[in-house]
């Protein structure tokens, strides 16, 4: 397997999550009647935090792909951390601004 083919999935996960976090910034926030509306940029901080943290496991995957030895445990752990940060980060970005799923009855 070539070097770029081993690095491609990690880079695709990172870039796709960054794009989704960027697109989530345009979702309108919902205000509860009892609470004041959140600030318009309330989703920026979680996007920066989780987007930045995702660079660490991506770098681990790139370094493991470049290594001559088999570092299977590093790749497995890095993918678990990367996907976990992507899921938790997207959830934090979406729900930090008061995003809710409307219930139609």
TrEMBL record:
Q: How is this protein named in the record? A: Uncharacterized protein
UniProt KW Transmembrane helix keyword: yes
Transmembrane stretches in the record are 44-65, 77-99
Write the record's keywords in alphabetical order, separated by commas: Membrane, Transmembrane, Transmembrane helix
Q: Which organism is it from?
A: Ruicaihuangia caeni
């Amino acid at each position: 397997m070539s070097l770029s083919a081993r690095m491609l999935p990690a880079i695709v996960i990172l870039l796709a999550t960054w794009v989704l976090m960027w697109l989530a910034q345009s979702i309108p926030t919902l205000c509860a009647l009892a609470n004041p509306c959140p600030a318009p940029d309330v989703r920026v901080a979680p996007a920066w935090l989780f987007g930045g943290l995702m660079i660490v496991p991506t770098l681990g995957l790139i370094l493991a792909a470049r290594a001559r030895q088999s570092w299977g445990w590093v790749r497995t752990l890095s993918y678990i951390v990367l996907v976990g940060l992507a899921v938790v980060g997207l959830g934090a970005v979406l729900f930090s601004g008061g995003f809710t799923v409307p219930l139609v009855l």
